[in-house]
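Following up on my earlier thread - several people asked me to post the actual chain instead of describing it. Fair enough. Here it is, all 149 residues.
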Amino acid sequence: MRRWFHCSILWLAATAPGTHNPAQQQGPAAYVIAPSASTRLEARRLLRICRWTDTSVVKDADLVLVVIRSSASFPLASSYDSLRWLLEAANSQLNDSGAQFHVYLYTIRPGISLLESSHHSYDANPSGTILPPNEAASPYPSRILYPCG
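Reply from S.P.:
Thanks for posting it. Predicted structure:
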């Protein structure tokens, strides 16, 4: 009886609100496409904020996260027949000099075709000032809608 009581207390402590349990808080696995240095930094920041993991195998992914920079309103299509076509479209964007970050989430359909489920865009540097590299990871206001919620 004492052993059962001890295990029950440990279970209650591990599942109590406010406790850190990485298994419960871990989000989906994302296959990330970010063609430039600035988009890779932004993708890593979004993965951290959303508590998603990244994977290098698209078949293991729950979704495809694409981060690009462009001045166009809708630089990518809403669906692609293959991952190759999406990669080519993402690589053809401005990426280092585009005025806005575009964050796309694509669902993976059978046969590895892709369908857009979300698109957010926001200024690459909302303040308009040039930031030192160590401050570049957090210049974004809280009003930006993150793709994870």
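Residues 24-125 form one domain. That should answer part of your original question.
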